[in-house]
Amino acid sequence: xxxxxxxxxxxxxxxxxxxxxxxxxxxxxxxxxxxxxxxxxxxxxxxxxxxxxxxxxxxxxxxxxxxxxxxxxxxxxxxxxxxxxxxxxxxxxxxxxxxxxxxxxxxxxxxxxxxxxxxxxxxxxxxxxxxxxxxxxxxxxxxxxxxxxxxxxxxxxxxxxxxxxxxxxxxxxxxxxxxxxxxxxxxxxxxxxxxxxxxxxxxxxxxxxxxxxxxxxxxxxxxxxxxxxxxxxxxxxxxxxxxxxxxxxxxxxxxxxxxxxxxxxxxxxxxxxxxxxxxxxxxxxxxxxxxxxxxxxxxxxxxxxxxxx
DNA sequence: TGCCCCCTGCAG
DNA sequence: CTGCAGGGGGCA
Length: 309
Prior knowledge:
With 309 residues, the chain is an alpha+beta fold. It has helices spanning 4-18, 163-166, 179-187, 194-199, 209-218, 232-251; strands at 23-28, 34-35, 44-46, 49-51, 63-69, 72-77, 81-86, 91-97, 110-111, 122-123, 129-135, 138-144, 150-155, 292-296, 299-303.
């Protein structure tokens, strides 16, 4: 689910709800979702599920700050530890206050968990809950259908030594991200598709498959254009388009085509404003063209053949 | 720089 | 049943 706008939505929501709370207990329901000590695989049954041992360093720590780097989430605790989380394709972080009744072990409130039937509700923890944090005033659930995502615990000073965080490029909202920066990044990849270039997290962080297609649409660039063919005026347009689509995504709390939810469990709204993504066969919003789907950089890619060149 | 893989569920 | 899905790591 998550690209920069979705992760930013989750980080902002969690910041409102869980900063200042203490971690009272943690259940790891899927060993591979909490990358910690793989030797500790001795499990026990909790409510019919298998649970794994937890690192003691995480217990009784207070949550100080939640931030985002690229598509990764950093939760800083007191006493020098941080929790790192990546949602990958289907991860969710859902927070349910304890006073939301009926309380008790599940944390109570039932949520529509991406189910097409609006009346369907899913109790937390759900069958996709992989890590369950009991906090002082509520419960935080890391749900991840496909188990591609991960949670890690690391000393705060080592966060950016982490294999994932260490190789991230520039944030699109960093002052250093400028048209000249984008131009030079593109020059270094003359033979790559422009889509592959803007998807490369070691150059710019946070753009994924949805927002790359959207940005290329607003820049009027065909996704298969090679880096060396891109002109300076085109770079300027692409730069503006990238910032525009990411800002719009954040404004609408992300795209909920499938599993993306805010920490409160509600859907984002950006899917209603997409220009090309998931709009194959539909008319272009700015010309008479029909949105076409092809394969670029191994990903389904949507564009308007009439206005993107 | 591309391809396969991790995993599960859903549409066609 | 096959193919495909908001990501990214490891391998030619």
